[in-house]
């Protein structure tokens, strides 16, 4: 895999200004990023034209582009599969707004997860709500020239799509042919799935990877967990993976105290798997 496939992100930088964050990503050699839609950077509850213009100016000043926009959607009061129709509808409207932000930023992808239904209702009901919501969001994004990414969640985060088999069934149930797949190594490990299994199901539609360590859960910086990350990265290389990868170190919140150190440790650990040359 090539070093240019590895892109930056603002994960763990939520307690620092956006300009400070982007300057550090640039200093680490990144020219693309996954933009996590978190306050105070660019969230879906405080978006306005002035803030969006500021974000674009910061990116332009530092020579960074946005590969995908990832609105916070696990902890927020946003849930596209909510059993409460008012919350569900408001969440879909926010994501349609997010698609417009993607278009404004020139991002290729809007990042989606399946949401979560009420635990006391049937999974089939939540599944239906999620498929309907994603179809609406993706259709709006399509009119703007934006495609979607879809990532499964862990069982503590969702009761809809939590492993590769469920993701494949869900993916085949949604409309259109422009939604690609995210492989999160921690979600993969906790579900008992494998890199090879993802590529058997989705092939080149695996477009983005979150490279994280865990025990197996935890979303840790590389080296802080017990996952066989060297093996996972070797498997990605063997599959001829040509998409993008980034780190997602959340942990227990301590990485946010010194995000640059956490990211540099990830970079150092992953470096042997990437070539700097354009041609291998």
Overall CATH architecture: Alpha-Beta Barrel
Morphology call:
globular
Write down the CATH class: Alpha Beta
- Gyration radius (Cα, Å) is 18 Å
Keywords: Isomerase
InterPro entries: IolE/XylAMocC-like, Xyl_isomerase-like_sf, Xyl_isomerase-like_TIM-brl
GO molecular function: isomerase activity
Domain Xylose isomerase-like TIM barrel: 23-258
What does this structure look like?
There is one protein chain. With 280 residues, the protein is an alpha/beta fold. The chain has a single domain (3-267), classed as Divalent-metal-dependent TIM barrel enzymes (TIM Barrel, Alpha-Beta Barrel). The protein has nine helices and eight strands. It has helices at 18-27, 49-61, 85-105, 123-143, 164-173, 185-191, 195-202, 229-238, 259-270, and strands at 8-9, 32-37, 65-71, 109-112, 147-150, 179-184, 206-211, 244-247. Strands 1-2-3-4-5-6-7-8 form an eight-stranded parallel beta sheet. Helix 3 (85-105) runs parallel beside helix 4 (123-143). The longest helix has 21 residues, at 85-105. The termini are close together. The model has no long low-confidence stretch (mean pLDDT 96).
């Amino acid at each position: 895999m090539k070093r240019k496939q590895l892109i930056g992100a603002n994960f763990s930088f939520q307690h620092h200004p956006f300009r400070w964050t982007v300057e550090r990503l640039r200093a680490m050699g990144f020219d693309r990023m996954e933009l996590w839609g978190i306050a105070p950077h660019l969230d879906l509850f405080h978006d306005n034209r002035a803030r969006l213009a500021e974000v674009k100016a910061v990116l332009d000043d530092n020579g960074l582009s946005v590969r995908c926009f990832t609105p916070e959607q696990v902890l927020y009061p946003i849930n596209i599969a909510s059993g409460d129709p008012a919350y569900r509808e408001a969440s879909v409207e926010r994501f349609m707004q997010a698609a417009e932000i993607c278009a404004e930023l020139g991002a290729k992808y809007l990042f989606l997860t399946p949401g979560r239904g009420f635990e006391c209702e049937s999974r089939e009901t939540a599944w239906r709500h999620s498929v309907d919501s994603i179809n609406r969001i993706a259709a709006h994004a399509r009119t703007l020239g934006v495609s979607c990414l879809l990532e499964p969640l862990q069982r503590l985060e969702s009761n809809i799509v939590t492993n590769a088999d469920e993701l494949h069934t869900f993916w085949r149930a949604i409309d259109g042919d422009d939604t690609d797949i995210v492989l999160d190594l921690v979600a993969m490990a906790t579900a008992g799935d494998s890199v090879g299994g993802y590529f058997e199901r989705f092939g080149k539609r695996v477009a983005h990877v979150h490279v994280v360590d865990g025990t197996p859960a935890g979303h840790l910086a590389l080296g802080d967990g017990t996952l066989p990350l060297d093996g996972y990265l070797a498997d990605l290389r063997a599959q001829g993976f040509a998409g993008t990868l980034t780190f997602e170190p959340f942990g227990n919140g301590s990485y946010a105290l010194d995000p640059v150190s956490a990211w540099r440790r990830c970079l150092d650990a992953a470096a042997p798997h990437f070539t700097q040359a354009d041609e291998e």
